[in-house]
Amino acid sequence: MIFPLVIAGVAAVIYIVIGMYLSLSLQSSLHLALRNECGELSKTEYRLDEIKDFKAETDRKGIRTVVRMEEEREYQINILFKDRITRKEEGRSYLIDEPELIRILSFQEDESK
Predict the structure, then answer these.
(1) I want to staple 88 with a disulfide (CB 3.0 to 4.6 A). Which of 29, 37, 55, 72 is the partner?
(2) pTM of the model
(3) Measured between alpha carbons, how far is 28 from 32 in angstroms, rounded to an integer?
(4) How far, CA to CA in Å, does 67 sit from each of 23, 35, 50?
């Protein structure tokens, strides 16, 4: 009577660990893609290794450029049940263009004098 409960508990823990791993894997690949995109936009980074491309959207928020990425993956897990797990992650990074920021700040200083 206790043995089926133990098996169900172990299966639940396995599913939770798999879900956390898949989510973390997606987050880390999205983070690397965001860093790569920001580096390419600011022309401050050049990578020799391949990084998975995600669709990036750029927008402006004030004087900063915002890079946004969103990805949804579906995984098939065949342990005890044949389930599909869907993970959706989104990330954003603010890109500071230093020459443009210096120009804007110096322009504001000139106007205040």
Answers:
(1) 72
(2) 0.62
(3) 6
(4) 21, 10, 19
Q: Is the Cβ–Cβ distance between 56 and 37 less than 8 Å?
A: yes
Report the pLDDT value the prediction gives residue 6, as an integer from 0 to 100. Answer: 93
What Å distances lie between residue 42 and 57, 63, 102, 105, CA to CA?
15, 14, 15, 19
Other beta carbons less than 10 A from residue 103's beta carbon: 12
Alpha-carbon distance values, 18 to 36, 63, 75 (Å): 27, 41, 10
- Give 70-82 pLDDT, tens digit per residue: 888 777 777 666 7
Nearest CA to 42 among 82, 109, 99?
Answer: 99
